[in-house]
Prior knowledge:
Layout: H1 3-9, H2 12-21, E1 30-32, E2 50-52, E3 58-60, H3 68-72, E4 88-90
Antiparallel strand pairs: 1-4, 2-3
Amino acid sequence: MAIIDIKTKNTWSAKAKRTVTSLLPVDKSRKGKCSRCGACCKLPNPCPFLGIDDQGLSTCKVYWLRPLNCRKYPRTKSELITADTCGHSFDKTKD
């Protein structure tokens, strides 16, 4: 995904939408697991609870209390705006 696409989709209104829709279930075609890249923790600005461990991987300082939009990111393929680094993907056969 091009950087311009991320900038266009990385807005406060997009974050608000992700927060509201986080009450909905995660798309069944989502595959993979968190790569701990930290890119989603910077949407649209760095989370104050984002930390970096000794291995240089992102870590959440409030992991067990994190909000649903953090737990479920990316909930759908259209929400995946960090595809270049995210460990999650969506099964193309289930579009």
